[in-house]
Amino acid sequence: MKIRKAIVAVAGSGTRLLPATKSMPKEMLPIVDKPIIQLVVEELVEAGIEDIILVTKWDKKPLEDHFDHNWALIHELKQAGKDHLLDETKKIADLANFIYVRQKGPYGNGTPILSAASIVQDEPFVFCFGDDLVKSKTSFTKQMVEDYEKHGKPIFAVQEVPKDQVNRYGIVKLREGNMEIEDIIEKPSIEEAPSQLADFGRMIINQEIVDILKKTALGKGNELWIVDAVKTYVNNGGIMMAKTVDDGEWLTTGDPLNYIKTILKYAIEREDIGEEIKAFTKELIG
């Protein structure tokens, strides 16, 4: 079945980026001149996703406004003859069909899926976190979708992390000799970690996993974890594949240090400002 829909989790509060996120959703913070969430959406659209379901909460209206037409701004740009900016502004609202759902339920990264489950009934879909970026030459979601179309199995995105950071992530154990997931341990100690492969905010989920998630008890930290449902799926004989990024990398933006690193990585590759950014960073270091 063709993958046409994506659920994007954007209901977090961004507390590690306060006070910047006090009145602005963390997903709207800019990576140079595009908000984080727009980069996520563009990645999904490049993969052929048509319906993007953003699971929000009460303070995410700026995010919804971003993917709507701003007629006052359109008129102002038209009057000023700023055609390039006019085109850039208008096309944002037309990237996809946007659906907004308020998150309800326990805290945890499995809750957005359940909040939007009725909209993706019986269809495989992409699930992603609205503050995780994957910088790659070809949309990483497109890479995942193409793999899914070949083997028809759900997919978890993974990337190797330093050993001293495994206790921050869900860590994947692979079956010997292939990319099938045997187990996932949520935030293990360094001693318990079965590998250094961390799962991150990109996955393709099927209805069977959603049904398991509906019956999954709260886990670590009294939260609802998608990895707990996946573990049950795998233990019941389901096959879940791991997928690394081809020609790129996962970049998280959830804390000040990684947010700044991500901005620099995008800025350095810009044709208009990249060389100046490189020169400036060398000057700072010098």
UniProtKB/TrEMBL annotation:
Molecular functions (GO terms): UTP:glucose-1-phosphate uridylyltransferase activity
GO biological process: UDP-alpha-D-glucose metabolic process
Annotated ranges, domain Nucleotidyl transferase: 5-266
Coiled coil residues, start to end: none
Keyword Transferase among UniProt keywords: yes
Assigned EC number: 2.7.7.9
Pfam family for this entry, one: NTP_transferase
Signal peptide segment: none
InterPro entries to which the protein is assigned, alphabetical: GalU_uridylyltTrfase_bac/arc, NTP_transferase_dom, Nucleotide-diphossugar_trans
Source species, domain of life: Bacteria
UniProt entry keywords in alphabetical sequence: Nucleotidyltransferase, Transferase
Catalytic reactions of this protein: alpha-D-glucose 1-phosphate + UTP + H(+) = UDP-alpha-D-glucose + diphosphate
UniProt xrefs under PANTHER family: UTP--GLUCOSE-1-PHOSPHATE URIDYLYLTRANSFERASE
Family note: Belongs to the UDPGP type 2 family.
Annotated protein name in UniProt: UTP--glucose-1-phosphate uridylyltransferase
